[in-house]
């Protein structure tokens, strides 16, 4: 089987030509063998209008796939399309349009369904999305916020976190469905999620929800201080500031942690903020490790997990909880290909978007 894989991010779109075949054995039911040819398309300049940037991106993607063999399906990263179960969904025009104008928030992943559908229609094959960031499997007690009318939500790196949790469970000799895993995704966004028996039972979220600050997002803030800030800042402007001018960007002037890895060695104010990040991530891992019993493993992933010395300091704080599995970068292209492959090979049923919205 051949699948085109499309993963739109905030700064680039990652693509892959995936060759997928079953490698099932009685001991490993549903196991797939994947071969991925990876490509990356840097996003056009941000000067143009949304429509111009979108047209430029489509042209660059079309150019990248022009010589690829005909696919059996196209699979894209899903978007914020409402609370739903984890799984693989067929992209319809309705789903694609909903994602483009989602009432659940704006994010680069909202474009994945449309890009997949457009390419799939050119080849007369189905388009899929897998484990969108709005996967919502929270425990009822995890939804309670502490104030009437405010409910905690589930918006996190579901695609990568689930794939990493599966990998971590395997590394400690467990099946994902029979394990407890805490996953800290340290990327452009940060999310810390507790998985129990294959379900994301609680998460910090990643889009101005809760949790540690990120390279440019604010994370959880003291409520009183946030109230004061809210009453002297126009709402849309404040949302933009907390989303793009918070975190490391707001505190030490850059969201590039490769730069900060060097600056930390000589600049005390950078070292304090890096230590604060480690402190917050460690606290969050500890909190999400206290749900239903000690986890079988803690996994640290995302681009920031490439900072070895930073990850080591987090491990020093949380290593007493459970074995720490480090998977720098992300497994999103693999997870998208596997999700499509499981359906194409008849190993898994499609989820129905309209029926499964929780
Ligand atoms: N080798 C590295 N060392 C430290 N930080 C890194 C490294 N590589 C990437 N990062 C940081 O990871 C973050 C991006 O994470 P990534 O998961 O790639 O992004 P996205 O969430 O957009 O997919 C950026 O803040 C970047 O500075
Ligand atoms: C809903 C979480 C998605 C997210 O924050 O992704 P990035 O870290 O890639 O921005």
Automatic annotation (TrEMBL):
Cell compartment(s), UniProt: Cytoplasm
GO BP, sorted A to Z: acetate metabolic process
Transmembrane annotation, as ranges: none
Known catalytic reactions: butanoate + ATP = butanoyl phosphate + ADP
Ligase is among the record's keywords: no
Keyword Cell membrane among record annotations: no
Alphabetized InterPro entries for the sequence: Aliphatic_acid_kin_short-chain, Aliphatic_acid_kinase_CS, ATPase_NBD, Butyrate_kin
Record key words, sorted: ATP-binding, Cytoplasm, Kinase, Nucleotide-binding, Transferase
Protein family (similarity comment): Belongs to the acetokinase family.
HAMAP family, alphabetized: Butyrate_kinase
Name recorded for this polypeptide: Probable butyrate kinase
């Amino acid at each position: 089987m051949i699948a085109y894989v499309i993963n739109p991010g905030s700064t680039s779109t990652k693509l892959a030509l995936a060759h997928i075949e079953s490698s099932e054995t009685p001991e490993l039911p549903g196991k797939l063998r994947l071969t991925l040819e990876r490509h990356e398309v840097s996003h056009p300049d941000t000067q143009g209008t949304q429509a111009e940037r979108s047209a430029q991106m489509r042209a660059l993607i079309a150019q990248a796939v022009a010589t690829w063999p005909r696919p059996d399906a196209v699979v894209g990263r899903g978007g914020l399309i409402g609370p739903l179960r984890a799984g693989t969904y067929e992209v319809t025009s309705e789903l694609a349009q909903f994602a483009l104008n989602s009432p659940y928030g704006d994010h680069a992943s909202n474009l994945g369904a449309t890009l997949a559908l457009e390419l799939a229609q050119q080849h007369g094959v189905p388009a899929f999305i897998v484990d969108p960031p709005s996967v919502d499997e929270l425990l009822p007690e995890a939804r309670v916020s502490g104030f009437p009318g405010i409910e905690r939500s589930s918006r996190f790196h579901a695609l990568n976190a689930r794939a990493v949790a599966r990998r971590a469970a395997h590394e400690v000799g467990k099946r994902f469905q029979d394990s407890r895993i805490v996953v800290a995704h340290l990327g452009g966004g940060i999310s810390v999620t507790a998985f129990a028996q294959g379900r994301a039972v609680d998460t910090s979220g990643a889009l101005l929800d809760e949790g540690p600050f990120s390279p440019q997002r604010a994370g959880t803030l003291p409520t009183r201080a946030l109230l004061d800030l809210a009453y002297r800042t126009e709402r849309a402007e404040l949302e933009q500031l907390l989303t793009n001018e918070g975190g490391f960007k707001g505190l030490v002037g850059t969201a590039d942690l490769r730069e900060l890895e060097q600056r930390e060695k000589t600049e005390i104010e950078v070292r304090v903020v890096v230590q604060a990040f480690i402190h917050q991530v460690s606290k969050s891992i500890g909190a999400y490790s206290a749900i239903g019993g000690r986890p079988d493993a803690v996994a640290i992933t995302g681009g920031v997990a490439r900072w070895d010395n930073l990850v080591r300091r987090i491990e020093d704080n949380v290593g007493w909880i459970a074995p720490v599995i480090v998977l720098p970068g992300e497994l999103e292209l693999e997870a998208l290909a596997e999700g499509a492959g499981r359906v194409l090979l008849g190993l898994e049923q499609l989820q129905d978007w309209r029926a499964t919205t929780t």
